[in-house]
Amino acid sequence: MEYKGNPVSEGVAVGKVYLYQPYVPQAVEGEIPEGEAPAAIARYESLLAAAKEELAEIRRRLEAAGNGDKAKIFTAHNDILFDVAMDEEIRDKIEYDFMTPEWAIHKVYEKFIKLLSKAKDDLIRERVADLRDVKNRLLRIAAGVPEKNLAALEEPVIVVAHDLLPSDTATLDRERVLALVTEVGGATSHSAIIARSYEIPALLGVDGILSKLAHGQEAAVDAIAGVLVADPDPEVKAGFAKKREDFLRRRAEEKKFLPLPPKMADGTVLPVHLNLGSASDQELAGAAYTDGVGLFRTEFIYMGKEQLPTEEEQYEIYKKILTAFGDRPVTLRTLDIGGDKKLQCMELPVEENPFLGNRALRLCFSMPEVFLTQLRAALRASVHGNLWIMFPMVGSLDDIRRAKGFVETAKKQLEERGVPYSKDVKIGIMIEIPSIALIADLAAKEVDFASIGTNDLTQYATAVDRMNPALREYYQSYHPALFRLIGYVIESFAKEGKPVSVCGEMGGDPYAAAVLAGLGISKLSMGLASVARIKKLLSGLTMEKARELAGKARSLPTGQEVESYLKAQLEPLL
Ligand code: PEP
Ligand code: MG
Fold first, then answer.
1. Rounded to whole angstroms, how far apart are CA atoms 448 and 425?
2. How far is CA 142 from CA 38, 43, 105, 212, in A?
3. What number does the ligand 1 atom closest to the CA of 188 have?
4. Which residue in 23, 217, 372, 479 is a FRET match for 504, CA 20 to 30 A apart?
5. pLDDT band at 489 (very low <50, low <70, confident <90, very high)
6. Does any ligand 1 atom lie closer than 6 A to the CB of residue 385?
């Protein structure tokens, strides 16, 4: 059987399927008969022992794989398991209130979770997720459900899940994940970004795949063409093995371009910037090969948290990135949530059409304190480097003026506190709503720069939900309408002498990048995984050729024809 998906991180793999469906235990209120407290205490102790054993096993595997850092998380979980205060309360509840061990565990853990959630100290608040994890482990063991954890896989597998949470990806055993397949998520989902940065082949948006595969079944994943084959026969397997070999050879060849300057064949330099989702050392390693940060998706700071990140916490993150890039520009996009991006620490309104709803900048306008906290943190960090602030989902000049008003307020607040900030911070917008693209000439007068968010621009210009796997054929990144819109934006900003970049997925797609170069883009921004490939492409491309491609991309009648044309023209350079 063959299934189609969205190939968001290139690669090819054949292996066993690991169905990842995390068990979320539900605690049920329960009492034990009087006189059975000693037996219930014994049962509680056996749960502790089993949990301790599981944690030790995970730690052992992580340490053996050289992941000492991740192993520490599970040492902390062991400490929680035997925390004296919680342990004593649980025992009391079983012994004197006749609660079942499960109910007692639930009550006591929830009490401590509530307490910690209110703590001022960020580090203490972050322990809430750990408490939840330990509580779930105990209740899962009590329910007799075996452990499923991506942190310590026994063998290399193809992970198949509905979606992955940031906590899953943070501890992902990357050496043993051959490929990642999920039912939801597009090229810009959290799972996609992590898969690319770990270089794990990933196929997302494979509708209903969890119910179609069995744990342990063999599968072949082609995350270049976008297919998964269940139970591949020997011939199919041989084909996949060959494709994998070719892919790895090509990737090794491309890697040679990583440290080189982004120079075109005629000497034109087209700066290559980095898209970041965090300030981790792993992501910041890209600073050695890029000319700046074209997009820092700050919403990732807010994800997987019980509480909103504080000004101080954000300031430290922004400072780390700005410092890593020295005088090179760091473009920080203000909070962009809603639509496909949800937050645990914030209740978002339930809407009929979330992608057209109260999201991103609009949401920030409706929560002034959240917006101002972020802007103050960013402005404070601006003294450590070259900060560019960028607003997402701008639809009109009203949006621009209102957002700039918030920046002025944040500056005033810092001045009142006597806190310094750089006077050279640039202010820009994302172009991802057609209405602002069509008045780019007017917008260019009000801001210092723009960056085109092609993921959303494609979605809004073609009226196709970027997350809906059933509509994949309609989501056409090579639609000539997009190249016309982008061309107009670039020309309009060029008239004002202001730079435009692309930070959507098109920036890191070599076929689209060649057209963007020809349209006169000032820079391209992409995840680290695409940098080497784009530099290789540029090295073989002249501006004259790029202009020819751009002319065709704007004039050919269909997206399909543009795509075939670009592939035929550019294949020899890749
Ligand atoms: C985009 O829309 O192209 C973009 C870069 O933003 P995001 O993918 O985070 O919505
Ligand atoms: Mg967007």
1. 10
2. 17, 9, 11, 29
3. 8
4. 372
5. very high
6. no
Nearest protein Cα to ligand 1, atom 4: 453
The pLDDT of residue 453 is 97
Read off the pLDDT of residues 176-196 as tens digits, 9 standing for 90 and up: 999 999 998 776 666 787 788
Per-domain boundaries in the chain = 2-21+149-253, 34-142, 272-429, 432-522+542-574
User: Domain 272-429, what fold?
Assistant: TIM Barrel (3.20.20)
- CATH superfamily name and code, 2-21+149-253: Phosphohistidine domain (3.50.30.10)
Q: Is 456 in the pocket of ligand 1 (CB under 6 A)?
A: yes
Q: Which residues, in sequence order, are CB contacts of 395 under 8 Å at separation 6+? A: 433, 435, 436
Q: How confident is the model at residue 468 (pLDDT cuts 50, 70, 90)?
A: confident
215 is catalytic: no
- Counting every residue, how long is the chain? 574
Q: Which among 190, 273, 384, 479 is annotated as catalytic? A: 190
- Decide whether 272-429 matches 432-522+542-574 in CATH topology: yes
In this model, does residue 420 exceed pLDDT 80? yes
**The pLDDT of residue 501:** 98
CATH pick for 432-522+542-574 out of 3.30.420.40, 1.20.140.150, 3.40.50.300, 3.20.20.60? 3.20.20.60
Q: Which ligand is nearest to the CA of 193?
A: 1
Could you tell me if 304 and 167 are in contact, meaning their C-beta atoms sit under 8 angstroms apart? Answer: yes
The stretch 334-347 carries a mean pLDDT of 82
The CA distance from 243 to 225, in Å, is 11
